[in-house]
Design a protein that fits this description.
It is built from eight helices and two strands; from the N terminus they run ααααααββαα. It is mainly alpha-helical. It has a two-stranded antiparallel ribbon. Strand 1 and strand 2 form a beta hairpin.
Length: about 170
């Protein structure tokens, strides 16, 4: 089992590295580039599904910080595999309740899954587009409480968050 877990940690880290390298293709104007991204994230989503079947949520205790973060990233990018995202969300929620995963990452995954389901997000982590040079979030359930809810899970206020992305 120890060898399996060590191999799993390496595999997850490698998948995150491939994701990072390929992510520039996600919003490419070239459909072929977008397809490369979609195939990669689909392959990773399928594999994450198998990992969750075998191990449950890959927590930092199980696979280490880097690989646990990689698993979260893979779930986050499994946009065309709602079953994988919903399952990751459920397992990650249990891990957060048990103190073995972070509420911040869970909040991002919850918003991402809600947006992919065509519903309103909670924390304003998902950006719909840019208006007058400023990022605009997808609609939120309680926009007036967004920063308060963000603070509860350790996410900076929306204006600080989007300042990182704004075009200088």
């Amino acid at each position: 089992m120890a060898h399996d877990v060590a191999a799993l940690a390496v595999e997850l880290a490698d998948m995150a590295a491939a994701d990072h390298q390929s992510s520039i293709r996600a919003n490419s104007d070239d459909p072929a580039e977008q397809l490369v991204w979609r195939r990669l994230t689909a392959r990773h989503g399928d594999r994450l599904g198998e990992i969750m079947d075998e191990y449950g949520w890959p927590t930092a205790e199980l696979v280490g910080e880097e690989a646990a973060r990689a698993a979260w990233l893979i779930a986050q990018h499994a946009d065309r595999q709602l079953d994988v995202q919903r399952r990751a969300l459920q397992l990650m929620q249990q891990a957060v309740s048990a103190g073995s995963a972070g509420p911040r990452e869970l909040a991002f995954l919850r918003d991402r899954t809600l947006v992919n389901e065509g519903r309103m997000q909670v924390y304003g982590t998902q950006i719909a587009g840019v208006k007058d040079g400023s990022p605009v979030p997808w609609p939120c359930e309680q926009p007036e409480r967004m920063d308060e809810l963000r603070a509860e899970v350790g996410i900076e206020p929306f204006d600080e968050y989007v300042a990182k992305f704004s075009m200088a």
